[in-house]
Amino acid sequence: MIVVTGATGKLGRFVVEGLLKKVPADQVAVAVRDPDKAKAWAARGVRVHRVDYSQPASLDGVFSKGDVVLLISANEVGKRFPQHSVVTAAAKKAGVKLLAYTSILRADTTGIALAGEHKATEQAIRDSGVPFVFLRNGWYLENHTEQLAPALEYGVVQGSAKDGQVAAASREDFADAAVAVLTGTGHENRVYELAGDTAFTLPEYAAEVSRQSGKKVAYVDLPVPEYAAALVKVGLPKPFADILADADAGLARGELNDTSHTLSRLIGRPTTKLADAVGAALKAR
């Protein structure tokens, strides 16, 4: 059985759909907080488990000996490590064959604050003794393209990235890598640094939005504290705004760039181009 946690999230949905193209539905299970969101999969034969990380007992019986499990990192920044630890303990207890985890690019060496919980989770998984694979996902193109509305409204993309390059890829690209690992062989105890084939700067991103939208959009670089304050003004909680601004500072240092092309080799095709991502986002508006 292949079990995907956090399956109804933005990344998880791509993973499950990718799995269903490769294996029978009765070989796929999902662990989700709200089973109603997985009704369509259940109707296709996918096994659905209700799981709440704050209730460790909810994981009883979810994993079985020999399962392949994908732990998609939780979305509650600051609470993720204890949540991940619950899943890791359950996977160890069940005797799963492989525990894959979606981490962050160069989790063990990057200075980006967002990596802290990922690094701790990786160590906990190593310490558990469960065979693992770390899918160290780089930046999602959607981190930028999902913010098109304010960029087009105000003609500005703000950040603290200077001219740093980011090798971003789409969620579907990263999901396809997870599917390749979950359905493949020889991935035990491997670490994959995953990123897009072609890096770009935020000024280049703003220029691409301008080119395709026909509206002038400029990149405005701000000091990290000012960018964090701007994010708070648009409604983000201050701790999360600080983390995002810190990530931009890491982008400026080149910590979200990668030239290994590991992702495209793993999925067997080029990663999504910036121009195509911008075009799709504009079309979807």
UniProtKB/TrEMBL annotation:
InterPro entries from the UniProt entry: NAD(P)-bd_dom_sf, NmrA-like, NmrA-type_oxidoreductase
Q: Which Pfam family, just one, is annotated for this protein? A: NmrA
- Report the domain of life of the source organism: Bacteria
- Annotated NmrA-like domain ranges read 2-241
The record's CDD domains line, in alphabetical order, gives: TMR_SDR_a (cd05269)
Protein name (database record): SDR family oxidoreductase
